[in-house]
Amino acid sequence: MTTTTNRRDELGQFLRNRRARLAPGDVGLPPGLRRRTPGLRREEVAQLAGVGVTWYTWLEQGRSINASVQVLDAIARTLRLDQTEREHLYRLADVPTVSEIPNDTLPAEVQTVLDALTPLPAVVYNGRYDALAWNATYQALFPGLTKAQVGQRNVLWQMFTVPACCWGISNRDIEMRHLVATFRASFGRHMSEPAWTTFVARLSAASPEFASMWARHDVASPAIREKIFIQNLSAPVHTTAMSLAISAAPEARLVVYTPIDEIHHHRLAALTADPPHILLCPFHAAQRAAQT
Predict the structure, then answer these.
(1) What's phi and psi for 121, nearest 5 deg?
(2) Alpha helices in 147-232 (DSSP H)
């Protein structure tokens, strides 16, 4: 059997399984007469999703038919799929997702862990380096990122589009090369997804520097490395960055920055206790003020 055949067979089994888990009352239908098998009928799913019964039957049977994102969205809503199940449905149907907004759902306990790590800066990124959650120290270091609109709340976007003097990393060139290489490794798993390809195109257009690094095709895995913070601090803070996987959120990683000694730890604690509200360096802050 080919990979496509296997995928379509798996798709049919997945849809039948999820259909069997729903009772008529779960979707607002009357219970009706006694059912020979548990769950919704195919025609009920088709009706609620707004698709033809024959077409939906063929989809469950694994036939070679085309399914648009809009139709799969309707089926996913009808079957009450969560985000992970929805993405699984798209992959089995060989249809990419299109949303550019990070939709990773993190357990509430993740924020509790982030807050407990204060004053160590800590953040959760997805594979595209969208910032999903952070603690007070990270926000004090990078208010421009944490306060950005969702589509730009991304460490790659901020690092390559914000002037170097306004971005709080001392070893910026090394950090940029590492981020692009780890992002490239993740990109290999999402090459058919518009959310990823569109992001690369947008950032390449906005930053020739990123476009040049991207063209090198360097790849790397997350690793323990040095990171030096300078933004919003009276003196630099040297830290060790460590990345940890979060099993409850695929591809999400908790990144923690540990200061190298008590002096640097104290600087982070002082920053957290009295965070400045500085988004840009004095020159660019004055330039922005003159434009408004």
Answers:
(1) -60, 135
(2) 155-161, 172-187, 194-206, 208-214
Please say whether the beta carbons of 128 and 154 come within 8 A: yes
CA angle 162, 164, 166 (to 5 degrees): 65
Side-chain half-sphere of 3: how many Cα atoms within 13 Å? 3
Instruction: Indicate where the chain has its CATH 3.30.450.180 domain(s).
Output: 108-291
Residue with tokens 């707004």: 50
Amino acid (1-letter code) at residue 271: L
- Per-residue pLDDT tens for 228-267? 998 777 899 999 999 999 987 778 999 999 999 999 999 9
- Neighbouring CB atoms inside 10 A of 46's CB total 22
The two structure tokens encoding residue 179: 């981020």
CATH of domain 3-92: 1.10.260.40
Q: Are 99 and 116 in contact (CB under 8 A)?
A: no
Residue showing tokens 């950090």: 175
